[in-house]
């Protein structure tokens, strides 16, 4: 295969996919449970016979894709790759599949294949919800990188479609699958070792910085229009950086620092650490429904009405000191960029700190003489078997959930409750004022402009195909 073998969607395939989606949608509407058995695809035959491994496709062959897909290959056969950058496709094919994968530049061709059971979605953030929704409607299970959505309203639609179709979706918040750190931390809280939870300090580091970035010609291997997809049309920008080989750009690797494509650190590290912090509130038996986000943030560009006024440099928040209030008025989550990356849990009887490298504090030291109950971790995992750590355990849990047709450890519903906090924090930063939230209606209250930022228009031709 060479670069020209990248398969573009034909009109016949488009018609077949459209017809199949209509059928699946009609079937899905009648489905009211969270998870249902496989139906009407080659997946069913494989699931029933257990005679062969499932097949999966990787959509988005960049850094996260090439780091996570090799773990997926332990459980399923990687047969197809999709990317809008032909250079990524060729390199990924050699790295992951010895040059033998089917290559695509349009993910819809993958979704049209009945022989593909699940997809791994590792695109930039602004593509996640659209591809995931269409994948579920096409009868695919999925592993989708965090953050699951670009907006709050996208999350509502993702959850609705998951319930309708019963597809299994594992969000890539793999800290939920880290036995020796984060889930032990949650077990410590659940066992009452720090008493009533009062405060959490969540460190997520400072956001990206850039100088002014000039408009440049789009690299020949990149389909820039398709890379932008649902987000507003804009010129490609790039500036070489002698200290970093990938330079400054509004494209590959640096998309996180543009509100058009992501939410900065709040939806990057925040999607990991807010998740554990809010699970900690629940583990303590307290109400983790968010009610407001308030505080201060620093951007490198000026904003008006929540929109950046400068288009040639990174525009997400660089620094922040935010407080999230919850329905349990006794607990608050403080989000900062100027403390250690990780989570400090403080209760009325003790405190401890956890991140990917350490779990420290007196409640942790006390485990030597007073260990946790034997079933403490199992309860955190809802009784599901977990053997490894991080990405391996996350994929293993996904395959267990697919086999049993149950919600995985990082399901879309609990993920979106946490991610909504990250989105609300971003709205707070952009407007520079407190944002109030009604969890019962999942709506911003008392602020029309802030409420309007729960959604964004899709660029013509890139709307979600329902």
Automatic annotation (TrEMBL):
<dbReference type="InterPro" id="IPR050463">
    <property type="entry name" value="Gfo/Idh/MocA_oxidrdct_glycsds"/>
</dbReference>
<dbReference type="InterPro" id="IPR043906">
    <property type="entry name" value="Gfo/Idh/MocA_OxRdtase_bact_C"/>
</dbReference>
<dbReference type="InterPro" id="IPR006311">
    <property type="entry name" value="TAT_signal"/>
</dbReference>
<feature type="domain" description="Gfo/Idh/MocA-like oxidoreductase N-terminal">
    <location>
        <begin position="56"/>
        <end position="172"/>
    </location>
</feature>
<dbReference type="Pfam" id="PF19051">
    <property type="entry name" value="GFO_IDH_MocA_C2"/>
</dbReference>
<dbReference type="InterPro" id="IPR036291">
    <property type="entry name" value="NAD(P)-bd_dom_sf"/>
</dbReference>
<feature type="domain" description="Gfo/Idh/MocA-like oxidoreductase bacterial type C-terminal">
    <location>
        <begin position="212"/>
        <end position="463"/>
    </location>
</feature>
<protein>
    <submittedName>
        <fullName>Predicted dehydrogenase</fullName>
    </submittedName>
</protein>
<dbReference type="Pfam" id="PF01408">
    <property type="entry name" value="GFO_IDH_MocA"/>
</dbReference>
<dbReference type="InterPro" id="IPR000683">
    <property type="entry name" value="Gfo/Idh/MocA-like_OxRdtase_N"/>
</dbReference>
